[in-house]
Amino acid sequence: MADEGYSTPTPIQERAIPHAIEGRDLVACAQTGTGKTAAFVLPMLQRLGAEPRSGRIRALVVTPTRELAAQIAERVTAYGRHGAIRHVVIYGGVGQRPQEDALRKKPDLVVATPGRLLDLMGQGHIDLSQVRTLVLDEADRMLDMGFLPDVKRIIAAVPRERQTLLFSATMPGPIAELAKGVLRDPIRVSVTPQATAAETVTQTVYLVAKSEKRALLERLLRTSGIDRAIVFTRTKHGANRVAEQLSKAGIDALPIHGNKSQNARDRALSQFRSGVTPVLVATDLAARGIDVDGVSHVINYELPNVAEQYVHRIGRTGRAGATGAAFTFCDPAEERGLLADIEKMLGSRIPLAEGGRIESREPPRESRDAPRDRDSRDARPFRDDGRGPRPQRPVQGRPASPPARSAPSRSATASTGPNVTSGAARGPAPGAASSNEARATNDAPAAPRRRRSRRRYRGAKVA
Predict the structure, then answer these.
(1) DSSP secondary-structure letter at 421?
(2) For the segment 170-210, what is each residue's pLDDT rounded down to a tens digit?
(3) DSSP assignment of 5-49, as one string?
(4) What are the chain's domains?
(5) What is the reported pTM?
């Protein structure tokens, strides 16, 4: 601990470590950045070091994301550098063969994500029958990601006589039920109310139209004295788009999200830690998987759909007693309700930044529900079928109807047979026009008549 520069334990460490060393089951609820990892890694290493090695897995840590698994394994290496504890980290997104080789070396401790762990269990590469300590880290995040059924399968594979430590930033109902079912007379530790933002983080909100968010983000990154910032978006596509836009504007930025390969995610985190890339654009997947010292600002480019996720986002700054700032962009037209949910959860209003109301400069778009101009309706093609004009509405999948045929003239009809008598042969009716006028009228084509088909198509398919 002295090598790591630790001299005074954090509140969660001070309350949790003594009970964990005694072997008691524990439920610990604390906000991010309070030292939860050391609160379970240190007592676990002490218990493992006090027992003789058996060549079997004696401790298991289950965590939701690859980044968290890698960081926990890094802490195990740092805290246990003077011991003889063997450990291996297991997660998806990378080749399985190196992990199989590491498991053959008979580790004492395994840090794993649920998916890859179940895969290796199903293939017979992992035996959990000798696990004495089980740690469920970020249990509420595993619930959000849909890992709760996988966690229950893992719990069923470990012995009932064990020590179980459950750590979570929040305590939703399903997690409380899980703790009630798998822990035995647990000690409950809570250092802060659930879903409470760190007091060391200064929060401000900008009421900005969606179309103006990009310009505001670039201005803040250039003028607000930001050394190292994490920009959060709701979607993976949004993270890629924002990172690309910042790069085109001359601001070094890299995206990190679940669609990136593990090598790409590791490279982005490595460049962000070293300061080569000052801006990291992330989704909520990485909200609890990024443990980087010196993050000065967190920018919520888009508000999260779940209010509790806001706390995990801004928890990336102001860690370990340091100060930080969180800027939140809220589109009044689309995200006002999400902001209200966050403020209700926090129990207070987030202050509006100075000059933080930015209206859209784009002209308003025409509403889809607005009535169309009559001229546009009248501009459609028409046909004359004898009853006056009506719109031509082609039916999808049916051939266009052929043009109506002109009725033959009476004179032409008179020549087709002896039983048909022309109007000219009968002579003009009383008050009718002269024969020449009648002949001229009869020779003109008559108005087309509407044709009605008598055929019935029952069940026939139209090509």
Answers:
(1) -
(2) 788 888 888 888 999 999 998 765 555 667 789 999 999 99
(3) T--S--HHHHHHHHHHHTT--EEEE--TTS-HHHHHHHHHHHHHH
(4) 11-190 (3.40.50.300), 201-358 (3.40.50.300)
(5) 0.61
